Amino acid sequence: MSTDKPTTTPSNKSASLSLDTWAVIAALVLALAVRFDILKNVSW
Amino acid sequence: MAATTALSPVRSENRLLNALSIVPGILLLAGIGYAAKVLERSVNGYAKAHHRTFPNIEYVLWAILIGLVISNTLSIPKIFQSGIATYEFWLKLGIVLLGARFVLADVLKLGGISLALVVIEITLSLLLMTFLGRLFKLKPKLISLLAIGSAVCGVSAIIAAKGAIDADDEDSSFAIAAILALGALALFTFPAIAHSLHMNDVSYGLWAGLGVDNTAEATAAGALYSDAAGKVAVLAKTARNAMIGFVVLAYAIYWAGQGQAQTVTNKAAFLWKKFPKFILGFLLISLLVSFHMFSKGQVTSLGNLSKWAFLLTFAGVGLRTNFRDMSKQGLRPFIVGALGEVLIACLTLGLVVGANRIWGL
Fold first, then answer.
1. For residues B176, B242, B213 and B201, what is the CA-based torsion angle, rounded to 10 degrees?
2. Contact across the interface for B89 and A19, Cβ inside 8 Å
3. How far is CA B275 from CA B113, B244, B278, in A?
4. Per-residue pLDDT reduced to its tens digit, B95-144
5. C-alpha span between B205 and B222 (Å, rounded)
6. What is the pTM of this model?
7. How high is the ipTM of this complex?
8. Residue B349 has what pLDDT?
9. Number of folded domains in chain B?
10. What residues of B are in contact with residue A21 (Cβ under 8 Å)?
11. Phi, psi of B148 (to 5 degrees)
12. Would residue B1 count as lying in a domain?
């Protein structure tokens, strides 16, 4: 049984954890893009 | 090993298909969000140009209303479902980016007040929901789920607790439906009550963060009042979310003691597993801004990116609220939830008014 194999019934709690991580990664990527002026003057 | 290599192309193809499957739903969220912004501008512009008095309906409410109308009148095709479910991702992304609009001193001050109020709110909510649940003779684990959902953070707390206390699917569906239905009602009642009481932005934001259970609805309820109130609501709700691990752990230990759940062997690992990690991202961005890593214009850009992310969230809140599905879940859990929520809303309002007198919010 390989360790990277997903369980047969993936729990919602592990899904929410990875969602958190993805949200933080995406936010940091956006913050870096803004910091280095790749994304400039984002309007609302 | 060979089997793993042979499976790789299939796995990557599946991943690509999974990634593509969310696109239609995200486009729907973006379309509704954009329509909400256009409607806000057009209606307000029309009223101004024709000297008419219209209530100022903000994009937040338009996005929720459009979503509600679609989900309750049309059957949303399956192709959109997985993309609509990404609204939680947009919510968390928006919260992390919102960290740019708080310097750390604000987070410590308001977060400290919020935490103190959160501890009181959680204790009162757990006691109250347990009492009401027993009064209405609900099943013990359903009472636990309703209590956790109303005390901490709505749906994610219920999902986290479901596994920890070995609750069945039916109980968690009841609890989630009750929390979501009451959250939808709070969107309309909280701002109306606050306007009638002439609450200031900070007090109202704290109240929305403490009194509305689900994070998306608490964010929306705050933003419906004002931009500043929305910021505070997110901070207060985030402080509440941070307590999820402690509350779920306490219930897990209780049910394990009753022989009806697995024993928690490593409590520190359990707490870390349940801790919402996006809060760390929020604090990190706030820390970077506090150390002047971003110019003023860049902070504005980050704040605006956060608003765009929230716009997709608000569209998702409307789209996933289906009153017909909720009504199928039964009346008793809803009555207990509603009674409890009304009392919790009154208690948290009292707490905020008290805090305002003590700390002058």
1. -160
2. yes
3. 20, 7, 9
4. 999 889 888 877 787 778 888 888 999 999 999 989 988 888 888 888 88
5. 6
6. 0.77
7. 0.75
8. 93
9. 1
10. 277
11. -65, -45
12. no
Predicted local distance difference test score (pLDDT) of residue B187: 86
Place of tokens 């969230």: B313
- Domain hosting residue B59, numbered range: 25-359
Give, to the nearest 10 degrees, the angle between helix B244-257 and helix B267-274: 130
Q: Does A5 touch chain B (CB under 8 A)?
A: no
Given an 8 Å threshold on Cβ–Cβ distance, is B92 in contact with A44? no
Residues of B in contact with A35 (CB under 8 A): 293-294, 298
The Cβ of residue B242 has, within 10 Å, a number of other Cβ atoms equal to 19
- Kindly state whether residue B13 falls inside one of the protein's structural domains: no
* Cβ-Cβ contacts under 8 Å, B316 against chain A: none
What residues contact B109, with CB distance under 8 A and at least 6 apart? none
**What is the residue-wise DSSP string for B78-146?**
HHHHHHHTTHHHHHHHHHHHHGGGS-HHHHHHHHHHHHHHHHHHHHHHHHHHHHHHHHTT--HHHHHHH
- Above 60 in pLDDT, residue A1? no
Residue B314 lies in a domain: yes
CB B124 within 8 A of CB B94: no
Does A24 contact B277 at a Cβ distance shorter than 8 Å? yes
Query: Is B306 a member of any domain?
Result: yes
CB contact B288 to A (< 8 Å): yes
Spans in chain B with pLDDT lower than 50: 1-5
